[in-house]
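Exam review. A common question shows you a sequence with its structure tokens and asks you to describe the fold in words. Practice with the pair below. Do the first one on your own.
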Amino acid sequence: MPQHVVVVPYQPAWAEVFRRESEAVKAALGENCLRVYHIGSTAVEGLDAKPIVDLMPVVQRLGAVDARAEALRALGYEYLGEFGIPGRRYLRKGGDERTHQMHIFQAGDTENIVRHLAVRDYLRAHEEARMAYAALKRALAARYPYDIEGYCDGKEAFVRELECRALAECRAALWEEL
């Protein structure tokens, strides 16, 4: 059965779902895990989202994550390796009606780590972008209720532009800080 694409209003409970899951993930990854970030739409208060909590663990050594694959499977995750992004470990939980996704990066991979955090923080800070993104996601979910590829393809141009704006703002803030 294909994944059902559903976009729902923001749920405050997602923060607690993330907190509990991040503790379990930290335990499964052991001392290699430096931090777990809540990313994606469920990390942005007020943003409509697919009810899938995205976690981004940052680890000291990415290779050591592979040795912990069984501990992550014991939490219910499907371990998919890089899954299209070199230097990442991607996992998902919940099958076709997925509940969690995990994107693991090594601490030195600032490009991918900053990209995810910048988009999250930009959406938190910019209501107009958040509302436009929510409207697009609702429209695409209605148009592609059982076509996750169509849904993702429909978001791609918006997300790329959003990422560019978020990274530009992030860089400008760093320059001001320096």
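Now try the second one, then compare your answer with the model answer below.
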Amino acid sequence: MSQESHETPTADKPRVLVLFGGRSSEHEVSCLSARGVLWAIDPDIYDVVSVGITRTGRWTLMPHGVPRTREGTLPAVPEDGETVTLVQTRVGPRLMLLPDDVDAGAADVVDADRGRTVDLGGIDICFPVLHGPYGEDGTIQGLLASVGVPYVGADVAASAIAVDKRQMKHVFAAAGLPQVAHDVVRRADWERDPEGELARIEGLLEYPVFTKPARQGSSIGISRCTDTESLRAGVEDALGYDRVVIIERGLDGVRELECGVVGNDDPVITAPGETIHTGASFYDFDAKYLEPVKLQCPADVPDDVIERCRDYAAQAYDAVGARGLARVDFFYLPDSDEVLVNEINTIPGLTPQSMFPPVWEAQGVAFRVLIDRLLAYAMEASEESARYSP
């Protein structure tokens, strides 16, 4: 295989690596988000190379971006693409094409003279469009930091805290942010004494409750439980995704609001938007990505609720140490006039049905402009971090 068979980067444009897919159960959602990001990056300003991460964790070159799919089906990274890797070299971070047709025990896998590898050019910045474990939890951020590639979004520590709902709730509690009543079940405790755990939860929280894996998003693994047996089933289901389960008290008459946040030291925060549920008993995976949804941006709520959401969003962003971008979600209870912080997402969905782009469009910020700003924030954060490098 020759270098000429792949696009050569343009020297005068920053080269952006867009990563998507991944090993998480949110693989398809990541692909949907990446489709939007790839569309929005201005080709007059940036050179773009897209790389999909398969469900097994292999990086594969995706020269045509995210595959198109039939209506009602979700895209995924195919297993038959060429394998690539990101390495630091004497001339900076490079994307390298690797052979797949070698003996696993071969000693000459990286023998460039025999055409074993192909240099696909340097990488100036990465936009990781990865949701959930192995992408939004600090793992990919650590890899990028270790090879010296600036990247969009939160750093390793903030990513790890935000993706783990148990740790996130601890941080929010320390910051004094109001939250819904909740509890935690660990796999070891559940396997040791499930009946005792059920009794303990029922003594703390009234039905209905929601069971959630601690480190999943997109409503994957979430169940609404109304009695002991459905709670048992909900915990078992959530433990199929993580070793820790969050149990949250259900709320009557609740409205779900979401604020977008961008920036580093001085973040900008949108007015909240609202997702109007149109059928599901709660906002589950199908309702989010496979069924029509109504997004109200900005939400039709009183001015003081808007300001409370913005204030809490700023506090949540600061509490976890986020940078670049995030979406902060709230429960609003009109009857009691309460606003509760639900969670923060450091790589929010960027799909056509996601809230993050519309709340910014309602502020007069088009999606293409937003993506350009996120890339600029990433470079700014990298330059700031370089001040403290050894």
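Model answer, second protein: The longest strand covers residues 324-333. Confidence is low (pLDDT under 50) at residues 1-5. Full marks require stating both points clearly.
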